[in-house]
């Protein structure tokens, strides 16, 4: 295992086809703060954020995941990670300070399931707006919480993140008559339910980014606001409580179909004897503790992801068979 | 028009097949207070209620609506109503004081669409538990708010309640290319959005009873509570905001399928120049302001209603054709 | 008793010394909607309101209450009231349509305790913004709820409103060893806890206007917003639950010291057998159900009121002695 | 600095004079779960907790702080701490597994300011009740959050926790004309605002334990519940938002005067470039962002603390002079 100290999921960069439409959704709709923009990118942060961005919108021909990024505790952790990527034969490249605006040097790699993942330590400071309540608008996004990824081989993905990257597991879902197959896992570095969710499906595909909202009432207010400015059809999955994670949520989609979860309510997971919570795929309270099912689009649609060097979209392949 | 002064929808009596199961749902689930019970009936009230009951559960062979009841301002109003029913040739009968437990004399009639409707003035006092917060459990139902009825001829039903019974209209829905047909109407005596909703459909069928909850967060807490004691499959329609009425809601069904709306958030409707709000049936924000559709069961299932004299279930007939 | 049908407290007109400062407080702070303004007045409404104003700010040399206004059900009710005022020998004057901008003809009188009170029926329509959630800002005031008046002779004031004006009493407070003296009363025409609160004190003085807010969380959000734009010292009495009325509240003061209550959570009061709730002045849960006392300024400070004809401020006199 | 990995503040043990009264307050009032009890102790946990206790009530002659306890990541961390305590010449003693019921071996020490502090790694598992919502009562305490300690020499205390124990600082308050004196500091190991607050005052005295509540509305519900079962006079400081920490709070006191903060709403503090937020003691929004002051009792009263070996109460001394 690398002993690099990964702090948390820090930001996500998505490719969008129309920067103005995307800006309207994330700034006027979700209430995110625009730190800076250039011709091809908009850099957004949440109300709690003391750094340059937790979401980057990049102009592209078609929507996809550009990359997700974890922050590490010190610059040397990046060298430790490079060593691991070389050992494991994984594609990676270094980014100079400023190549991603506002960010120090970074290492970007393709994880074993094909996801573009970046690690960095330094980022420009930006003013946290925690107590400037008069600037809290729309969904009042506080900060990023997690990334949700569809992987074709969850056993391999799970081992990579647990054994090589030092993640811990808070909850997981099994399938099969006796629960003999892993179906999904909620993994974390920061002591919440997750920084990263892995779900067995055709992949690599990016399912959603979760942002932290203060409480359930604020999520309901967000729905009212979004609906009132015309985004009612973008509210894909009605507010509810997840069985897994116990979080209260709503799912909304941006004009390109990128999915955002407005998320609140999980718990502390960092005690040394934490026992991961086990769910069976067939548990009727797993997806929604209140019993309703997600809509078809939520279950079936997700974003392709980009290769970190070529920029091509990674081929999407069926999940590997449930093994005996 | 009768000048009887109808105060508000006051209670609903539903027929249930298993009193114990129903008690568990309404008392342990919804948190209603049991004022009294006898062999065949359970009398429940909300936390605000200063009277004997706002919901009666009556043991029966099959589930149906026994009757809904309006409270009038004075006992003489009942005589005025009798006069109207005689003039209109509608079936009715008098109930002696105590025939419905805790209630004074009452007049029960079949309305022109076939609904069993009771009027009364006096009811035994019962302690309001408004500030006994330690007794507030489950859904924390405060009081009854409205009844929702499926009627086969909404034009006639609308005229009856507006012209003969003195109801006012807060909102309505039209259908047809130019909105030329009435499809639904929200009618009130108390100055809220409604005491009675009428919807054009196969009828007479009873769709749901709405109970007032303090706020949206309490409705979410109710879902958590209901789901945690096994009623997750009873949460039929996920929490959301209605376009019509602007209320925040969730719909739950009891073990017999009787539907309850936990409802909060409407507005004052009694100004003399109130202009009813008009919706078109095709407006995507009408049913749910946030854009999602009710599930099939919510759109299609409803309860038969009882004849006030024979106790037989009223025949359910298709809605009358949209007239030119 | 006059049989004029008073619907509800409809608006309040206060005199302020600086229109711009007052506008900032009520529009940027409380989130009220400016319908119109002229050189000397700003006309504001709440988000639910379908009429021209529920609060008027009028420029004046010193702050005071200009008048409070009730809406009646029909124009003829105004003539009935005139008859009563003549019989009772109370000063009054008629206002032509438009003399108060947006309003039909009105009758303005000095009540027996010296308060300037207006009655009217017609007012210009204005768009309700109930579902334009993107315009909901600050305290998100929905509508006016009640007026709170300090009267020197509460026995007389109570009789006037109950016996002559047809108000009903929802709750009241008594003082004295055996509760033999009336100390305060909550009176209503609309079926909530009150349109008008009367409290025994040096008078006539105007204590506060209550505005309806959706729920307790929204009141907390209002505090955050107000504090963040510099009005932290204007939050006079911390959020809490009243014993009397059971409402959740916070009290804020505008730049001239006019007091606003952000208020939510009362109950239905219009059943024919409603029993007024009795509190004793010494009950530690009366003022705040949670036990804390209002600050000194809240207990001692209130606004003088204007004479309806001379515009002079009414003399403030000590309360009449507790009678045996 | 010790490189022992302290996870978080894990539990607090307070001495109470009447176990039954204390049980009623914490179980019936705050809704904590009783895991176990013996003749002299009651072991309580929050709804999220997967371990035996986060609060221990111990019978004693007079109320005081028995000890606070931090959990470490591994058993070896305890040996590292022992080494440090020896080097620093601080009094400590080992507890055998089970000496504190449900807990593995532990080391208990007197910190340089005189506070009794315990460190341990292992504790018996207990069922988390996160989704057993039907067991969520009263204040619905989820878990412990922080301890607030009054220290006579904050400079020394700050250096001990930052330099020797590896805490980080999220916010701090300075005093003096140019802010030249440290007055308070919020220190953390888990990535929230704090595990430990230090405030300059007569000490050592224990000010309060903070427990995490889901959201502000739940804190208001807690006040209603507490007030309704007779604890209205125990609500010492009304709900509000702290400037420092930005948390929403209410303070309640148990029958012995032990103070509990019901707390929600802080933010992530573990980014490597976090800049501690600086407040000046004179900032009117520091204590309450909304501008109101804490009551006198809150500012002046706090609990004595016990010596870890003798059990005697530590002498309380005036704070050291503001140094030049």
UniProtKB/TrEMBL annotation, chains A, B, C, D:
Belongs to the extradiol ring-cleavage dioxygenase family. Its EC number is 1.13.11.15. It comes from the Bacteria. This is 3,4-dihydroxyphenylacetate 2,3-dioxygenase. GO terms for molecular function: 3,4-dihydroxyphenylacetate 2,3-dioxygenase activity; ferrous iron binding; lactoylglutathione lyase activity. The lineage of its organism: Bacteria, Bacillati, Bacillota, Bacilli, Bacillales. It comes from Thermoactinomyces mirandus. Keywords: Aromatic hydrocarbons catabolism, Dioxygenase, Iron, Metal-binding, Oxidoreductase. The gene is hpaD. Residues 8-122, 143-265 form the VOC domain.
């Amino acid at each position: 295992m690398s002993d690099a100290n990964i702090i948390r999921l820090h930001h996500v960069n998505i490719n969008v086809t129309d920067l103005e439409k995307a800006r309207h959704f994330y700034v006027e709709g979700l209430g995110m703060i625009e730190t800076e923009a250039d011709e091809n990118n908009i850099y957004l942060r949440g109300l709690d954020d003391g750094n340059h961005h937790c979401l980057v919108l990049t102009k592209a021909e078609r929507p996809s995941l550009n990359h997700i990024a974890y922050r590490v505790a010190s610059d040397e952790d990046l060298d430790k990670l490079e060593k691991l990527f070389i050992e494991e034969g994984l594609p990676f490249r270094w980014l100079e300070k400023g190549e991603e605006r506002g960010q120090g040097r970074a290492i970007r790699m393709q994880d074993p399931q094909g996801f573009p993942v970046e690690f960095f330590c330094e980022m420009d400071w930006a003013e946290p707006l925690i107590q400037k309540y008069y600037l809290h608008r729309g969904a009042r996004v506080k900060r990023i919480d997690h990334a949700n990824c569809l992987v074709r081989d969850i056993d391999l993905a799970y081992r990579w993140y647990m054994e090589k990257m030092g993640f811990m597991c808070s909850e997981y879902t099994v399938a099969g008559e006796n629960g003999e197959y892993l179906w999904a896992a909620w993994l974390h570095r920061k002591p919440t339910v997750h920084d990263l969710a892995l779900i067995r499906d055709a992949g690599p595909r990016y399912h959603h980014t979760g942002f932290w909202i203060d409480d359930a009432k604020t999520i309901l207010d967000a729905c009212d606001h979004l609906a009132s400015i015309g985004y009612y059809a973008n509210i894909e999955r009605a507010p509810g409580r997840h069985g897994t994670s116990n979080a209260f949520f709503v799912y909304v989609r941006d004009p390109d179909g990128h999915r955002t979860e407005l998320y609140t309510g999980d718990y502390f997971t960092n005690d040394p004897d934490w026992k991961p919570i086990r769910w069976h795929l067939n548990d009727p309270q797993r997806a929604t503790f209140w019993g309703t099912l997600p809509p078809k689009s939520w279950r079936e649609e997700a974003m392709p992801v980009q290769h970190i060097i070529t920029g091509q979209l990674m081929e999407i392949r069926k999940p590997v068979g449930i093994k005996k």
